[in-house]
Structures are given as structure tokens and as C-alpha cells.
Amino acid sequence: MQRVTGFGGVFFRAKDPVALRAWYQRHLGVDVQGWGGAVFPWPSDAERAEGDGTIWSIGGDDHAAFAGSTVPFVINYRVADLRSLLAVLKEEGCDVRGEAIDSEYGLFGRVADPEGNMIELWQPPA
Predict the structure, then answer these.
(1) Sorting pLDDT into bands at 50, 70 and 90, what band is 92?
(2) Distance of CA 90 to CAs 27, 64, 83, 87, 99, Å?
(3) What φ, ψ does residue 68 adopt, rounded to 5°?
(4) Residue 94: how many other CB atoms lie within 10 Å
(5) Which of 7, 20, 34, 64 has a CB 3.0–4.6 Å from the CB of 54, allowing a cystine?
(6) Which pLDDT tens digit goes with each residue over 47-69?
(7) Which residues contact 94 (CB under 8 A, 6 or more apart)?
């Protein structure tokens, strides 16, 4: 019997959903629709790069994504130019956590939204 076949989405509660949606739209460019969410389409098979996929992972307190935070989850968003985006987010007064981290999997950066939810931004390797 086939069970889980992919990643359907990320859902989280907000104290002020309207304001939080606006923050994501303004600072991260999320195309928030009237129903309160967004759909991130995957590229076609012909456009998909090797290794493309949505990661789902369970980690302990020592996992790098949770460093310096007590939040129970982190959402990872793929970006094209991490360093430039982090600079813009800082200029906009967002809560950017540290500098870009370079790894074999690409560049990673972190920012917290106004309600303290941790966001990991990921630029895949070239």
C-alpha cells in the first residue's frame, strides 16, 4: 500500500494572519492569494535540475536550522540570490539571524517573521 507520496504544504497558525501574510508578500515576494495562501509550482520534468525536491526532515535541538531558536518548526524557501536578499531584508528592518552559511548543499540564511517563526532561505549550489 502506498502512503505518503510527496509534500503537500506548510500550514501554521498566526496571531494576526492578515498582517503576517502581508509581511511574507512584501519581504519574501510570496504571491499570497485571496484565500490566504500561495502555491509554489514545481518546474516541469524537462526544467527540473538533478536533486530538486522538497525536503522533509526531523532534527533535534542540535540541527543547524534551529540554532538560536526555540521554535518547533522551520520553513525552508528556495531563493536565487541569498546574499542580496539578506542585505535587502536587513535594510527593510527584518530580523535576519546571522550571515549566509556556505555548505556543500548551497548557501543558507535565516530570518524570523514578525511572529517569531524561523525561515530558512536556501540558494542551491551552482
Answers:
(1) very high
(2) 10, 21, 11, 5, 11
(3) 75, 20
(4) 19
(5) 7
(6) 666 666 777 777 777 777 777 77
(7) 27, 111, 112
